[in-house]
Amino acid sequence: MAQTWLIVGLGNPGPRYEATRHNIGQVVVDELAARRGETFRAHKANARVAETWLRPGGDKLVLAKANTFMNVSGGPVAGLAKFYGIDPEHVVVVHDELDIPFDTLKLKVGGGHGGHNGVRDVAKALGTADFPRVRVGIGRPPGRQDPADWVLDPFGATERATLANLVADAADAVEMLVDDGLVAAQQRWHAPRD
Fold first, then answer.
1. Is-catalytic flag, 22?
2. Both ends of the chain: CA-CA distance in Å?
3. What is the pLDDT of residues 53-87, one digit of tens each?
4. Does the pTM exceed 0.85?
5. Fold assignment, 4-189
6. Residue of 22, 43, 95, 116 marked active site
7. Which parts of the chain are beta strand (E)?
8. Is 88 in contact with 95 (CB distance < 8 Å)?
9. Helix, strand and coil percent figures for the chain, each rounded to 5
10. Any idea which residues are catalytic in this one (predicted)?
């Protein structure tokens, strides 16, 4: 039976943040929308959404980006989940992850927030941490740079050379998570890549 999934890309609003590491979640959701020729429209839950399908006749996808800053994205996410009648196990949060090397993906359900304030706020607003996550590795900053500054910097030239592939892989991972389940997606994306 077809399900409805809420796919949320975490990030910050406005042009200042568009190309930053912290916004990789929104970039992935943009990729999912572009693959389907969809555009985002305003939603009363203080977010932008694009309604589409995984494939014709398949599961419905509600692609979403909150209009709020990352650290307070829980309200819009919970509002969208309520509006569409989607339980937390069908809310997929795509976000940047400092503790995973750049160009690496990890998927999980539940667990801690690892210091990620956006994930923390979503868990608080949903009343549970048991939702699927696609964690897109951005790596730790070099030297003594503050991680808070690192995540708000644009990707460097070396990273930009492979960024499109990382975004495509993350979008593929979301699709596989929805289509085949968490374990299959983990087996595909956690395996070492050549």
1. yes
2. 36
3. 998 888 999 999 999 999 999 999 999 999 999 99
4. yes
5. Rossmann fold (3.40.50)
6. 22
7. 4-9, 41-43, 47-53, 60-66, 91-97, 105-109, 132-137
8. no
9. 40, 20, 40
10. 22
Amino acid at 129: A
Count CB-CB contacts under 10 A for residue 103: 16
Contact (Cβ atoms closer than 8 angstroms) between residue 106 and residue 97: yes
Please give the Cα distance from 82 to 191 (Å, whole number): 35
Angle in degrees, CA 12, 9, 145, rounded to 5: 50
Task: Enter the tokens of residue 18.
Answer: 């568009």
Q: Would you say 69 is a known binding-site residue? A: yes
Q: Using alpha carbons, list the distances in angstroms from residue 47 to 59, 126, 147, 152, 156.
A: 21, 16, 27, 21, 29
Sheet holding 47-53, edge to edge: 41-43, 47-53, 60-66, 4-9, 91-97, 132-137, 105-109
**Exposed/middle/buried for 11, CB within 10 Å: 0-12, 13-18, 19+?**
buried
Q: Would you say 71 is a known binding-site residue?
A: yes
Query: Quick check: 42 and 9 in contact, CB under 8 A?
Result: no
Q: Tens digit of pLDDT for each residue in 124-165?
A: 999 999 999 999 999 999 888 999 899 999 999 999 999 999
Ligand-binding annotation for 165, yes or no, is no
- The C-alpha atoms of residue 99 and residue 114 are separated, in whole angstroms, by 8
Q: Is 16 exposed, middle or buried (0-12, 13-18, 19+ CB in 10 A)?
A: exposed
